[in-house]
# Entry
Amino acid sequence: MRAMSKSAAVRAIPAAVRPRAAAQPSATKSAQAQQLREAILRACTDFEHSVRTGDKGYLRALHLAAQPHDPSRPKRLSALFTKRQSQFRNGCEIDVARIRPRLLPANDRTDAGELFQLTRALWSMPYNKGYGRRLRFVVYDEEHDGVIGIIGLQSPPADLSARDAKFDYPEGRKLELVNSTMDAYAVGAVPPYSYLLGGKLCAGLIATDPIRQAYWRRYAGKKSEMDKKSIAQPLVAVTTTSAFGRSSQYNRLRYWDRLLAEPVGYTSGYGTLHLEHLYAHICEFLQTAGQFTVGGFGNGPKVRWQNITRALILLDLPGSMLRHGLQRELFLYRFVTDLERGMAGGSFGAPISLTVEAVSEYWKDRWALPSAERRPEWSLGDEREM
# Structure
């Protein structure tokens, strides 16, 4: 995995699509609107082309360009890496057969929390801390004292067509039952473990006992901030979607004869992904028009959607422009037997137990050791320098 700087990512995007740093004081409202309208039209055209041609490099560049501009962030991350760099290993230091993964809860202001923040910054996807209920883990190699990857979970989306088509919710109870699940928003490995298909390991560990147990410890007896209702227990399932269409990380992800990540369909291809890099420009336009909604507690999880939709209306652009066409594959992890019966209003079955050690040993035999043998050059790079 190679990290791309944000400046390089912006240069990879056609100039007409890039957001302006700020509106000039002399610019009229109509000129501002016209510039934004043209940028949105161009963004839709270019994104459609990237989806049609399978240009994942363009999509990654968009993700990087969409990350909030924070002048202090590079310096802060550099200082954090200097502090933690000994926990990011080079391949030559790793004995594949001796890798011993462990899940470390990555709470704020902890060592694992810093490692999660630093590792997550290597992703091209825009950084966020998740929303609603959150669980974060660092996948750590205890044998070699190094970071393998991360797992980030958050509250699930209220509406997800492929997931909702699978279950027969009782009338009026859909949100309650969906909230007994979580959604994985950041899962993957960093070099050199990624060369050994460490992403498969991180994805497989979602199904293990410490995830359910951490959810119980964190949320048992707690109430939601919004409606003050008790948070559902136990955690019965996790969903996740691929970043770029079909996913090699989750496809055929098994533990022996058990399918861990069950493919259940694709997203509808609607969203704001193709316009995220213009969001600062959109907010500026809406603020000028007095139509901007500030994000935060009480305004719901779709403030960005609300603002972008409102901008399309004001710019006389059709709502169909929210259809970007990138259908992400959706996967389901079952944590209990009789999941369908529970989602239909009945009782959920017993927890499905699986240990970190079992998944780790299976991963080493099935993916890591064969990968190391096929690609002996995997251990020759300098990952810290990269």
Confidence is low (pLDDT under 50) at residues 1-27, 297-301.
